[in-house]
Amino acid sequence: MKYIDIFLKNVAQVVLINNKWTGLFILIGLFIADWKIGLAAMLGSLLALLLAPYFNYSSEEICDGLAGYNSVLTAIGLALFLQSSTLSWIVLIIGVILTLPVGSAVREFLKPFGVPMLTFPFVLMTWLVLAMTTQFSKLPVTIHILPQKVQPPDISHNHISWLSGITTNFSEIFLVTSVIGSLLIILGIFIGSIKGGIFAVISSILAVIFIVSLGGDYPSVTNGLYGYNSILTGIALGATFKTKLNTYIAVITGLLLTVVMHGAVATVLAPVGLPVFTAPFIFATWLVMFAGRTNGSDKA
């Protein structure tokens, strides 16, 4: 049972919650959304469970799922963007394994500053693997890395579904769009933390309001492509980590920074062709935590 708990917590910690039932509901939601994404999440969690002890993770980190959640996301990201083949799955496995020492290194680097690594190991490792594919003919990807011509974003204001946008923001944390999958993820978050669930839903609503007010692309908003980072920021600053700032001020500041970061990072990465992933959440949360820095990154 201990290993099953860790396996599920590796998934749950993607949304910063230490609860096996949260992980179970998320996994079910991912399989409903896309079985390939669900399978990748399981593979990432399993590899982390087996190998984390060899990469300088403590027993407490492993048992709480803190050693494995980045590997879960790396597996999902590479499964989504590498064209499926035997070689791509081998590269995926290697990328997932390498996420573990990268995570240890990032954790140790950030430790003196009292801020958590969040999902930075996933973002860094997945960016590196996708970027390297331009140098190898046997690793085709589903996106255009180093596009020959950078086009400005095609912004449409024809139709928007507010409810779909607010809901699918949750499944897009795991890089997939699914209303049913999102509902299961929301349920899982509330099971693990009512406070976290409240901040997550409010953050999703505010993110959609902010982005629509700024004139964001309606189809992207409807499909949850703009709001998922805000959910993670809301949970992190509202329910998981303490700062010297008032909680509500920290969350609102973090959400505004996340929206700004998303637009800016997307623009900066456009000439390279790499996805934004959870970089806006990471940078915004780090900035707010530095602004309200305590002597440690104690969890609430």
Task: Give structural notes.
The longest helix has 25 residues, at 86-110. The chain has helices at residues 2-12, 20-33, 35-51, 59-63, 69-81, 86-110, 120-132, 162-168, 179-192, 194-213, 218-222, 228-240, 247-269, 279-291. It contains 14 helices and no strands. It folds into two domains: 1-144, Orthogonal Bundle (Ammonium transporter fold); 148-295, Ammonium transporter fold (Orthogonal Bundle). Helix 2 (20-33) runs antiparallel to helix 3 (35-51), helix 5 (69-81) packs antiparallel against helix 6 and helix 12 (228-240) packs parallel to helix 14. The chain crosses the membrane at residues 87-106, 113-132, 173-191, 198-218, 224-241, 248-266, 272-292. Its main location: membrane. InterPro entries: Ammonium/urea_transptr, Urea_transporter, Urea_transporter_bac. It is a multi-pass membrane protein.
Descriptors:
300 residues, mainly alpha, Ammonium transporter fold, 14 helices
